[in-house]
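Each lists sequence, tokenised fold; shown next:
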Amino acid sequence: MCRFFEGSAHYYRIAEMKKIVVIFSVIVMGIVNLSATNVKDMFVQRSTGDESLFFIFSQSLPGQRENRESPKKLDYDFTYVQKTDSVTMLMTVNLPKSPKKLLISVETGNNTFEKEAEIIFVKPAKSSYSYRLRIMLSFKEFEEMYESSSPFTISLHYDYINKLYDYKFRLSQNKWLDNRKKMMDIIELIKLNTGK
């Protein structure tokens, strides 16, 4: 009789352990799928022959507004090109003046790099000018933007009729932590799919 109860208890423990393993597996799969879904909605990968392109969809950085004329935000997106191992960063911003030349600096936690922006087009908006700009980044510069625990800052500098303008754009720390994690996942996917 005792052996019967001992055997039943043993089978009962095994059944309970199986339930725990199944529940744990379902939770882990749910977390992985949730994370992948969030990242999946942020980019698309295209293959052209023997190379890959990664298009990272548009995001926004709020402007650090010092006055009424300061831009409210800067929209930007990235395209990674495997063949040149480079990243094209496209930006859209409304500026109060219409300069012919803009300098963009990206300040990360460890580094600052400056690029002259290529002006793709300018169109008048209500009381400002809408600019579409392009800069080229190396993959290393792109990766550096997301390595720091503090958000990167993008600054636009230009001279208009002998007056210097300087506008800064940056995420809050809370939004940065979420964005950084997703972007680091995308950077890891780029590396895995391009043999970097």
